[in-house]
Amino acid sequence: MRKALAVAFVVVLAAAAVVAYRKWGLKEPLPDGLLQANGRLEGDRVLVATKLEGRIESLLAREGDAVTKGAVVAKLDDARVRAQVEQADAEVRRATASLARTRVAIQEAKDTVALAGARVAAAEASLALLRKEVPKEIAAADAAVVGARAAVAKAGATREQAERDVERTRRLVDQGTLQQREMEMAETAVAVAVEDVAAAKAALKGAEEVLAQARLGDDRIRVKEEEIATLRAEEVRARTQARWYEAAVAEGDASVAAAEAAKREIQSVLDDLTIVSPTDGVVLTRMVEEGEVVARGAALLEVVDLDKLYLKVYVPEPQIGRIRIGSEARIFTDAFPDTPVDATVRYVASQAEFTPKEVQTPDERVKLVFAVKLYLKGNPEHRFTPGLPADAVIRWKDGTPWARPRW
């Protein structure tokens, strides 16, 4: 009796086991057109590094901090470089001031050239006028001298004639032929003739002085020619000086440009001592602490962009041919089971590999698989983070209704 009961109990237990296996052990497969895989969420990680060596003066981000592109995350000690920037700035100011003085000097030289040119032009005009007037003045003075000499000769001849008339008149008066009044008139004529001679000689002297003065016009011409030569030499010197200043301006421009380039170079070094985040994201790892001395190129922080996460899954070799770039997918997580996220296939490995250890099901870890990256189309409230395990359903046949993953 006991044996029969035992057998019956075993049969019932076996039947219950079969029913339970059929109910819970055999899951309904996904619809045709869908396939599932699992993996962990990852992101494109960016190392925030320093270009230069130095001591970390401040570190402004820790693990879990959100950072934005261009935000300052660390600063290196910059006292020495700031001093170099101030020195470079002073050199720029010095070169600029020197260039400004040279520009003033070149303008003064140009003004001197213009003034010398104007003076040369005025002197040449005056010389041309002299060359026209002096010959005329000399000719007129010569004619005046000739006329004055003729007047002197005429006056002398008149006086001689008057003196002879006086002698004849005196003899006739002594003879009683003429009256005394005639004698007086003859003597008066002599006196007038003497005065006329004196006046004619004075006029001749004046004419000769005018002629001598007119003949000095040649000297004035020579003086004016020498003055023009001197002015032209001054103009040449001014032009030479202006050209020299022009060369100095070009050199000054080059000096200013070199000083500004040196300042920009040292300013870029100063800027490189302030480290900024190259991307939006969250700090995953902080690799150094304030006060540490780091080498050139040392990594300070590791940042991942939570808006550009992807799920890396491994698809068995027999199924990889169904997946193509651009295939749609949905991501399910245990943390948010009722909030799947849409994703897109953007990477399919070209070579197979043995399933990595992180794949959850032991029976899948012995197969050849292909790595596939499913990029999330969004990350609401940044609830998904790298390292979070997730399941994926990939639709390889258009129009197939979505279903949850089944394991």
Report on the structure:
- By secondary structure, this protein is an alpha+beta fold.
- The protein is 52% helix and 22% strand.
- The protein contains 4 helices and 13 strands.
- It has helices spanning 2-25, 79-175, 180-215, 217-272, and strands at 34-49, 54-59, 66-67, 72-76, 274-276, 281-286, 293-294, 299-316, 328-333, 341-348, 353-354, 368-376, 389-395.
- The strands form 2 sheets. A 6-stranded antiparallel beta barrel has the order 1-8-12-10-9-13. A 4-stranded antiparallel beta sheet has the order 5-4-2-7.
- A hairpin with a 7-residue loop joins strand 9 (328-333) and strand 10.
- Helix 2 (79-175) runs antiparallel to helix 4.
- The longest helix is centred in the N-terminal third of the chain and has 97 residues, at 79-175.
- The radius of gyration is 61 Å and the shape is rod-shaped.
- Mean pLDDT is 84; it is low at 14-26.
Itemize the secondary structure elements and their pairings.
Blueprint: H1 2-25, E1 34-49, E2 54-59, E3 66-67, E4 72-76, H2 79-175, H3 180-215, H4 217-272, E5 274-276, E6 281-286, E7 293-294, E8 299-316, E9 328-333, E10 341-348, E11 353-354, E12 368-376, E13 389-395
Antiparallel strand pairs: 1-8, 1-13, 2-4, 2-7, 3-6, 4-5, 6-8, 8-12, 9-10, 9-13, 10-12, 11-12
